[in-house]
């Protein structure tokens, strides 16, 4: 982990590619979680991928971390300066990981839950040349986090999988549906599924996510 901008856990690719470069899944946990949360499913993901679970830079408690200060009330407030600093750290980290682990930079998937999903969407929409696929779980698009003139970006190669709990009490279904309208407006390829769950990453969501990854290979 020395020399990296963020803390992480890694599962190496088990099946090597002919060109020697592996596709990658970068995991971004939710607010108040840590890098262990998603990593428990790493070995269940397709074996040709290198899987890297990243830990957020800011600490709530010894084992709880967050990406930037946020309040998911009606105002959807967040600390923009802190969020932008984290976006920069993530882009730096992804570049470092691509160099260190021989990752195919044209096969980058971000998988995020809650705040990690909000960040994943903002990075992909702001830098679609650096991120090709996003799996956003119980998340939404926060336009305040998007780059200036993001509308001029080329989203042709971007694919997004949005999974949302129908009874989500933290990030409402309405916010997810607004996100779908955004995708439609900008002609972004997406898959959208709802589940009879709340603000959790359910087993049903995991299998839907795994199926989507396998179909998009």
Q: What is the secondary structure topology, with strand pairs?
A:
Layout: E1 8-11, E2 22-28, H1 36-39, E3 50-54, E4 58-61, E5 64-66, E6 70-71, E7 77-78, H2 80-101, E8 103-113, H3 115-126, E9 133-137, E10 159-165, H4 173-185, E11 189-195, H5 203-215
Parallel strand pairs: 2-3, 2-8, 8-9, 9-10, 10-11
Antiparallel strand pairs: 1-3, 4-5, 6-7
Keywords:
217 residues; alpha/beta; two-stranded antiparallel sheet; 5 helices; 29% helix; globular
Produce a short descriptive summary.
The chain is an alpha/beta fold and 217 residues long.
Give the fraction of residues assigned to helices.
Answer: 25-40%
Total count of helical runs of at least 4 residues:
5
The SSE string, one letter per element, is EEHEEEEEHEHEEHEH
Report Rg: 16 Å
Could you report the average pLDDT, rounded to the nearest whole number? 91
Strand adjacency order, main sheet: 1-3-2-8-9-10-11
Share in β-strands: 25-35%
* Contiguous uncertain segments of 5+ residues: none
**Principal-axes shape call:** globular
* Class from helix and strand fractions: alpha/beta
Largest sheet: 7 strands, mixed
The rounded distance between the terminal residues' Cα atoms is 29 Å
Please report the total strand number as a whole number.
11
């Amino acid at each position: 982990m020395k020399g990296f901008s963020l803390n992480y856990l890694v599962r190496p690719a088990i099946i090597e590619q002919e060109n020697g470069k592996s596709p990658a899944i970068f995991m971004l946990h939710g607010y108040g979680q840590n890098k262990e949360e998603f990593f428990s499913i790493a070995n269940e993901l397709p074996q040709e991928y290198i899987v890297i679970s990243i830990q957020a830079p800011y600490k709530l408690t010894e084992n709880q971390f967050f990406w930037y200060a946020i309040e998911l009330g009606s105002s959807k407030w967040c600390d923009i300066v802190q969020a932008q600093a984290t976006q920069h750290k993530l882009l730096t980290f992804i570049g470092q990981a691509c160099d260190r682990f021989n990752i195919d930079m044209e096969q980058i998937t971000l998988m995020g839950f809650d705040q990690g999903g909000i960040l994943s969407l903002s990075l992909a929409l702001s830098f679609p040349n650096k991120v090709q696929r996003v799996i956003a779980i119980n998340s939404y698009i926060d336009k305040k986090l998007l780059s200036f003139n993001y509308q001029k970006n080329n989203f042709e190669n971007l694919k997004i999988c949005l999974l949302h709990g129908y009874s989500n009490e933290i990030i409402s279904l309405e916010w997810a549906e607004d996100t779908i309208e955004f995708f439609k407006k900008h002609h972004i390829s997406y898959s959208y599924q709802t589940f009879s769950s709340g603000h959790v990453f359910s087993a049903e969501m995991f299998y839907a996510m795994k199926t989507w990854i396998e179909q998009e290979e």
